[in-house]
């Protein structure tokens, strides 16, 4: 398993990170036996990081991981998150501390490696989205995260770089965050890749450049777009995170992309993962899965290496054709 240094944290992180989310769902709906076998597979492969969140199965993912890791010789880095309730007043520090303590209880740990702000970042607060001003102000979300870190409950703090690109970049440029989860996949490379302005979908232009300026660690998320990229089979949990995207629009883009790519070694999921691993600005890719076999498939894809330049050229041509 290849490793990278996760930004200024100095941590050596495997290029594959296990995602404990609800869409893949092994740590939300899977059996205890398969969950433990997945952890054994991850340990043998050299995966040293697992990402989860309280929202994943309403605590089920954290609880399952805590149970499966208890007494286990395999003790990877763990990252979890906080989704602030922006309608519950401005005691963000209190919300963050309570959520962190609840996560640690479910995980059976005194500390995690990384705590991340889960809310999308925007110009103004709207639903789950939090205004960047409320992130950066005195008493805001960043200060609340820093207090939890300073109390020794997490080693590092980060954010999920979803929402509106200008607001996200303002938060990144603050220098207060150690890491970012970045939306990046075959169908939406805008966080790093120049694509025509008319290319359909949400825009994250400049996000990875801002992470680089701040020497932040970077973790790719939604590399399969909730499974739409990986397969034409539908499980009913597909839910695009980006404004303006639908399962239907993502399916159409995926069909066009793989038609343009033609024959490649490996499965669609392996192609999607190898595309992400070809991006040098990303330290690791978070991979969620429903069954152990899908984790084995991802490990094999990592061993195949990044996509070759010829395939990347065909992908860029497909972006231009879709604009």
* Tertiary shape: globular
Termini separation (Å)? Answer: 36 Å
- How would you sum up the major sheet? 8 strands, parallel, barrel
Content of β-strand: 15-25%
Helicity, as a percent range = 25-40%
Order of helices and strands: EEEHHEHEHEEEHHEHEHEHHEHH
Low-pLDDT stretches: none
Instruction: Count the DSSP helices.
Output: 12
Count of DSSP E strands?
A: 12
What is the C-alpha radius of gyration, as a whole number of Å?
19 Å
Averaged pLDDT, please?
94
Query: Class by helix and strand content?
Result: alpha/beta
Strand order of the largest sheet: 3-4-5-6-9-10-11-12
List keywords for this structure.
eight-stranded parallel beta barrel, two-stranded antiparallel ribbon, 323 residues, alpha/beta
Topology:
Elements: E1 3-5, E2 12-14, E3 16-19, H1 26-29, H2 32-45, E4 49-51, H3 60-69, E5 77-82, H4 92-107, E6 112-117, E7 121-122, E8 130-131, H5 132-136, H6 141-150, E9 154-161, H7 165-173, E10 179-183, H8 207-213, E11 217-221, H9 247-261, H10 268-277, E12 284-288, H11 292-304, H12 309-322
Parallel strand pairs: 3-4, 3-12, 4-5, 5-6, 6-9, 7-8, 9-10, 10-11, 11-12
Antiparallel strand pairs: 1-2
Helix pairs in contact: 2-3, 2-11, 3-4, 4-6, 7-8, 9-12, 10-11
Explain how this protein is built.
By secondary structure, this protein is an alpha/beta fold. The protein has helices at residues 26-29, 32-45, 60-69, 92-107, 132-136, 141-150, 165-173, 207-213, 247-261, 268-277, 292-304, 309-322; strands at 3-5, 12-14, 16-19, 49-51, 77-82, 112-117, 121-122, 130-131, 154-161, 179-183, 217-221, 284-288. α2 (32-45) crosses α3 (60-69) and α10 (268-277) packs across α11. The longest helix is centred in the first third of the chain and has 16 residues, at 92-107.
